Amino acid sequence: MLTVVVRRVLSLVPVLFVISVVTFVLMTAVPGSPFSTEDKPLPPQIQANLEAYYDLDRPLFEQYLTYMGNVLRGDLGPSYMQRNRSVNDIIAAHLPVSAVLGVLGLAVAVLVGLPMGIVSALRPNTWIDHLAMFFAVAGVSVPAMTLGPLLIWFFALELGWLPVARWGTWQQAVLPAITLGIGHAAVIARLTRASMLQVVHEDFIRTARAKGLPESRVVVKHALRNALIPVVTILGPLFAALVTGSLVVEQIFAVPGLGRYFVDSVSGRDYPVIMGTTLLFATVLVVANLVVDITYAVIDPRIGIGGDA
Amino acid sequence: MRIRARWLTALTAALVLAAPIMAQTTLNVSLNQDPFIIDPTTNWLYDVSANQFVTLVGYDFTAGAVIPAGAESWTVSDDGTTYTFTLREGWTWSDGTPVTADDYVYSFQRIVDPATAAPMAYRLYVIEGAQAINQGEVADLTTLGVRALDERTVQIDLIAPASWFLSSLGSIGHAVPRWAIEAHGDQWTLPENIVVNGPYKLTQLEPENLAVLEKNPTYFAADDVQIDVVNLYVVPQESTAMALYENGEIDTVDVPASDLERVRNAPELSAEYYNGPRFVLYYYNFNALQAPFDDVRVRRAFAMATDKQAIVDFITRGGEVAAPTLTPPGSVGHVDPSAGVGIPFDPEAARALLAEAGYPGGAGLPTITLAFNASETHSRIAQAVQQMWQNELGATVELQPVEGSSYAQMGREGAFSVWRMGWGMDYPDANNIHAELFTSDVGIAAIVRNAEYDRLIAEAAIESDPARRLEMYTEAERILVEEEAGTMPIYWYAENLLVKPYLERIQSPSLNREFWKWSVRN
Questions:
Q1: A53 vs B117: CB contact, 8 Å cut-off?
Q2: Furthest C-alpha separation in chain B
Q3: A207-238, pLDDT tens digit by residue?
Q4: In this predicted complex, what is the ipTM?
Q5: Which of B406, B410, B412, B444 has the most A C-beta neighbours within 10 Å, making it the best mutation to test the interface with A?
Q6: Largest CA distance in chain A
Q7: Does the domain made of B54-175 have the CATH classification 3.20.20.70?
Q8: pTM for the model
Q9: Would you list the domain boundaries of chain B?
Q10: Residues 256-315 of B with CB under 8 A from A
Q11: B277-495: CATH homologous superfamily?
Q12: Residues B364-421: tens digit of each pLDDT
């Protein structure tokens, strides 16, 4: 198992290399300059001075080599938007915030979605099932952009139970975590329900019941365990997406996370931040998928990892 | 145990009684961008820097006059090219170092030094030697026409007289502490390193989250600064800032367009509501390089078919003012609407003119691409203009929202037929908008060029008689906006604020909030 993990981690190197080349080529090919603001195109001389300051007047190939050389030394470069903050500073300051919010959001998604899916599947086509699936459809349909301000209005302004926004106390984490998690909870609920419905009709469930096992044991040990495989599969990419920050939720609740850097860096042509956030996301995604693969083996011993198990 | 409890009670009581004497006044406001942008040299000016560093002179937007700031007085030579400033006496930086003329000289040199790559360096090109240094032709920074004659005297030599120059110094050339910058590099603006000479000093800084400014006792007018602590919370979303205000967590807020109606009608909120002018222009450019807008008659026809009053009355609805000309009211060189400059809404004349240009009823017009930087307001305005041009002229207009900062450059390179732009005045003088946006040497290639307009703007910049200047700007606006219709001003923005009753804030069209002029009643 250990060798497999090591091998998978090492495979990150070529993956990140390819991603870095593709991202670099794409972002420099797109027209636009990091230094002109929306309303003030800068005079050519000022533009030239800024390009020289950040070595953007060098050939692209040289820029790439210099950049990758710095990355190997652990330096992700400067941010063009904020001269006194490097990409390392940005990730160090904002990734932990996004990660905490992301894990809380994921917890909401799983803790709400999974039971809802199980209950619906065990009582298919009853009012419980219909109610749960109604919420699941609603959860998927209402975007965070709408849900967030709605929750603020109701729980903060009308009831006064929770703070409006900002970050620092556990109370401030509640509404953003719900906003972030609820849509995904709906997806997990539907997926769990479908998967459970399929599994409960399998022969081995009938066998388990025929053996006289208590229903709770049949559900948890036999049905759920097998039904979880597709759910676990989506948790990997979902984890990577949530932990690296959500622009919309972070903006609505004024959470100082990493989310906006993914978007603003692209629209602002902040090249080192684009590269840094892309490489970060790729790393988290690959690692999350590795964890998912290991989890498969734990849930279902028939599934091996790494091809040699 | 009991004794100690009693002792504690007594202590608490003492503290409570003493509280009114020791109470700090605190202001809580929101900030919609990262507070890390602090160095006034390497960035455009923002709240956090404007409150910590002092320019030579200030600008009082309410009185419409240049006022003393770092310099207590100044003189201008008869030929209008030499400005001599006398700094305040006995004023020190927050670390105790005296504020001297050298600090200002260093600041100006740092802005024009190409190695600093300051985005607003071009605004100083009127100073002797500035352009040559900034373009890398001259390496010696001391050739810049900003010199310290003695500890308290700064002399600035211009290449030509410029009557707008003094007011432009209200937003550029803040003294900065050379020793702190040399010791800490780009990190000199962190709370542990920063040295300031202005009303406030940064004491806490959390990226994307919070900046805390505390009153700086070494500021020359520290006794007049009423608010002790300013907490700036980063809140990117307008509607969230509004909710924070309604929940009493911040003391003033910009009202989002979607809440205006509710604010005006709610008894409590409407009492806290302020509506006033802002020095920002909303305008559309016509791409004069391509058909059909290479024909002046077509540009004029489209401008005539645009009902600006309807846009401010029915779409923006925040007290904006339909703009016949470019320079906003309250700025030097603003042309009073009574002068009749500009293109009034006249759909009938527009149709006649379009027919004359060879497009009767819009027949033969190519599809017009109307671009705007993606935002809800811009989009709603563009939809209205699309309707007007379709209904009045029979034109087919395609809307093109564009994301991101490449937008301005794409427009500049002629990617659209018509595109939306905005301009906030850096200093309240027509020179800022004309000389930096529309003259042939700096202007956008796709906008029409006119030698007479260029000449007027160049001459108005060095004219010292205010009446003559206004005449020149009036004529210049007539040429650019009316005769050539190269660009189409639409409206001047409005300020829509909510202010808690206990806060007194300066209501002015200035872009940066000057907390040292505000006060909080306890």
A1: yes
A2: 99
A3: 888 888 888 888 888 888 888 888 888 998 89
A4: 0.86
A5: B406
A6: 83
A7: no
A8: 0.87
A9: 5-39+184-251+500-520, 54-175, 277-495
A10: none
A11: Dipeptide-binding Protein; Domain 3 (3.10.105.10)
A12: 999 999 999 888 889 999 999 999 999 999 999 999 998 776 787 778 778 899 999 9
